[in-house]
Amino acid sequence: MNLKGRNFLKLLDYTTEEIKYLLYLSQRFKDLKKNNIPHKYLEGKNIALLFEKTSTRTRCSFEVAAMDLGMGVTYLDAASSQMGHKESIEDTAKVLGRLYDGIEYRGYGQDIVEELAKYSGVPTWNGLTNEFHPTQMLGDFLTIKEHFGYLKGLNLTFVGDGRNNVANSLMVSCAKLGINYTCLAPDKLHPSPDLIETCREIAKQNDVNITITNNIEEGVKNANVIYTDVWFSMGEPEEIWEERINLLKPYQVNTEMMEMANFNCIFLHCLPSFHDTNTKVGKKIYEKYGLSAMEVTDEVFNSEKSLVFEEAENRMHTIKAIMYATLSDKEL
């Protein structure tokens, strides 16, 4: 399968077979890394990382993956780039496309990364936008496949704000990979009807279901994977915190919820997580709202069912696969 020259902007752009191929490549690269086998297969190439939103896992994953592959890396944050400020996105893309072999963007609207891809002329990768988070998905599904040994027919439940980029991407990914997807959220936080309809059409082709519900018992029954995310996305103002907390408090992932699920259920989270008060935001939430944990309790987060750190590591291996597949036409 040859993906050279392709952008990686959202998983709706990729077929089931292409996504499975990227997961296969990810496992190959993970094996090479674990066995200390050098794999500088992209030596001489250079990439630019554009970060309008900060990150730990995404930045580190791209940088380590690129260096393992032998590439040079330039990191540009909002303060060190003129994109959108003194220089248009189109002009920025045309300049960077002449200097670099690939561009990663992490920031705001999906339209920004789409425009970068349109004008740069080089593979462009979505490290996160308001609408989608496709690089996270490959890390998630590599983790699930490693644990269960397969993907098709599993049941995944996302609990929380069903409109956010992770929830959107999970629904798309499950539909593509033949996994039954349930969005468990209050009615006000259900996904876009258009995206639900698109995913249901894809899911139908793969003999699985997309379920949207506000009923906790119904939502987690038979779940093999319970996945949650923070209750406020990056950039959302503090003014919405109280309303969001009141909406989502009943949907906190705790031991009781995990016990309602399938006996073999695992817990996933894209991180960072507010599972204790050991952060500035965590302390602030506790002082203002009396919550020692938000979307997941510390007991679940640090339980044997939690694979969040394996999931975080897998971001690097899957990002390596994405970059290699879109920058090289050589079989691994």
Give an overview of the whole structure.
- The N and C termini lie close together (11 Å).
- The model has no long low-confidence stretch (mean pLDDT 96).
- 44% of the residues lie in helices and 13% in strands.
- Helix 2 (57-68) packs across helix 13 (308-327) and helix 5 packs across helix 13 (308-327).
- The longest helix has 20 residues, at 308-327.
- The chain has helices at residues 16-34, 57-68, 89-99, 110-120, 134-148, 165-177, 193-205, 216-220, 241-248, 255-260, 280-289, 298-301, 308-327; strands spanning 46-51, 72-77, 102-106, 124-128, 155-159, 180-184, 210-213, 225-228, 266-269.
- The protein is an alpha/beta fold and 332 residues long.
- The strands form two sheets. Strands 7-6-5-8-9 form a five-stranded parallel sheet.
The averaged pLDDT comes out at 96
Query: Could you tell me the radius of gyration in angstroms?
Result: 19 Å
Shape: globular
Put simply, the count of helices is: 13
Helix content: 40-55%
Strand content: 5-15%
Derived from helix and strand composition plus strand pairing, the structural class reads alpha/beta
So what's the oligomer here?
single chain
Concise account of the structure shown:
The protein has about 325 residues and is an alpha/beta fold.
Essential attributes:
single chain, 332 residues, 4-stranded parallel sheet, 9 strands
List the topology elements.
Elements: H1 16-34, E1 46-51, H2 57-68, E2 72-77, H3 89-99, E3 102-106, H4 110-120, E4 124-128, H5 134-148, E5 155-159, H6 165-177, E6 180-184, H7 193-205, E7 210-213, H8 216-220, E8 225-228, H9 241-248, H10 255-260, E9 266-269, H11 280-289, H12 298-301, H13 308-327
Helix pairs in contact: 1-13, 2-13, 3-4, 5-13, 6-7
